[in-house]
Amino acid sequence: MSFLKLVELKKVDLKDPVLIHGVPGVGLVSKIAVSHLINQLKAELIAEIYGDLIPLPDGNAGISVDGSQLEIPSYRIYHARSSTGRSLLLVTSEAQPIPWGQYQVINLLLDYAEKLGTKLVVSLGGYVTDEGLGVYGAAYPEEMLDEMGIYGVKRLTGGYVTGAAGVVVGLAKVRGMRSICLLGTTPGSLPDPKAAMMVLSVLEQWLGVKTDMSELVEMDEVIRESTKPKEVKTQEVEGKKEEGVPYHT
């Protein structure tokens, strides 16, 4: 039998809380977005879930060591407020729960969120598609997508939302909670701050979650620069030709 425990670190007064879930996934879109919100809004850690279903980033059990501090893998739940004063429960981790444990971890998370009065669950993620750039969504009830269209969210018309990003909105629906998955388009091969910014832009318009995204812009520029193919100087090419290196066009 699995070991799983939620530890409440601090009690806070909440106003119409919304849970925003973001753990590592395609393009690290959701992880980047929620980490950005935690840092920008100076969110406060209020609870943790830990157990043998939540591994280290490499999939193993154990601890991480940072300087003289050690940390056990966990789902961390932070509290912050939007510009309208609404409470935000920001949930993240360094790794997704193992596949066969995701339902148990998410179920415990939603138990806690419901106890705090949460009626809306938002899951963030990345989406690899050739349908065009943007933010795509799936929601319960479906009518939520009519509202989200105002913010440029496009409807997902098929396929799957895998991992914890899908499980959290699926279990929220079972409980009758309003829930939506917001997916930013990404190639998925590298961390994608640009896709995270698209998702954050929707949250800003919808929930009043305003932040300074300049750090994400810089992060995106660094990643793009580091992946550019290196240019070969003309002199170097000519020198190699003189040395008898074969070239093909």
From TrEMBL:
Gene3D superfamilies: PAC-like subunit (3.40.50.10900). It comes from the Archaea. Residues 225-249 are annotated as: Disordered. Pfam families: PAC2 (PF09754). InterPro entries: Proteasome_assmbl_chaperone_2 (IPR019151), PSMG2_sf (IPR038389). PANTHER family: 3-ISOPROPYLMALATE DEHYDRATASE, 3-ISOPROPYLMALATE DEHYDRATASE-RELATED. This is Proteasome assembly chaperone family protein. It comes from Candidatus Methanodesulfokora washburnensis.
